[in-house]
Agmatinase
Amino acid sequence: MNDAKTETHGYATGRLNLPFVGISTFGKRPYVEDWSRIDADVAVLGAPFDFGTQFRSGARFGPRAVREASTLFSFGHAGAYDHEDDCTYLPAAVRIVDLGDADIVHTDTVRSHANIKAGVNAILDAGAFPVVIGGDHSVNIPCIDAFEGRGDIHILQIDAHLDFVDERHGVRYGHGNPMRRAAEKPYVTGLTQVGIRNVSSTAKEGYEDARRMGSDILSVRQMRALGAKAVIDRIPAGARVYVTLDIDGFCPSIAPGTGTPSHGGFLYYEVLEMLQALARRNEVVGIDLVEVAPDYDPTGGTSILAAQILLNFLGFVFEARGRKPAA
């Protein structure tokens, strides 16, 4: 019998449902197949697209790996208590659902991106907070496209690479292009690009174009000199912020499972503290986390890091929403 209400010697006899049991939806939250019936605060969408890569592919398996890793944190159905903040994050009142993956048509970037955009549109139309798990960084392009007509946004990018290439050998929608495509949108009012370092995929002219088009570019060392809060304070007050987080923004010593690793990246708490400061200061409207390529990390640590940072960030966002008075 699987009656959770029956007790024996003070213990419930229903399903224990440990992390390694059952279906690997994100955080083992409910699966919603019908995108016209989304009724949730947060909706997770997989975007297993990696045709835009210029070196090692494999990020198409990122959504599946991050979902599986997220089951490690599936105990917290009543929320996760943080003794440092004396706060319970993600209580049961924050409803999270998993929509599965956008359909990817092999070798067809245009149709695949259109399907990702359709998923993000469905989430936004339902009034939910979009969480998109890539896939390579080009999946950010349809994510930002979905915000057209929904008000101005500012983008916070945490990444090793600027991703501001305009066009290379005819390619405009690969993983080196998304921030350039975003900056071209009239409703994207600016970009804060943090963690940019070392040998980049963007030439000097791209950096000049980025600054001219409204980018604030900071390296890892510059972020450390300023501190997390001071970096976030550079974002315009009152801006609605969309976050795009490339896992290679982290140091490959803790996140080797990515296609274009770059040494000298962030450690966990540096990114966590920026995201917490952002949630407390600005309205956050969505996030994509990209470039997890699990086959390059047999330990699974990169996927666990991705799942952990997403769940903590969602906790920060909804805790901050609860603290702010209703308009």
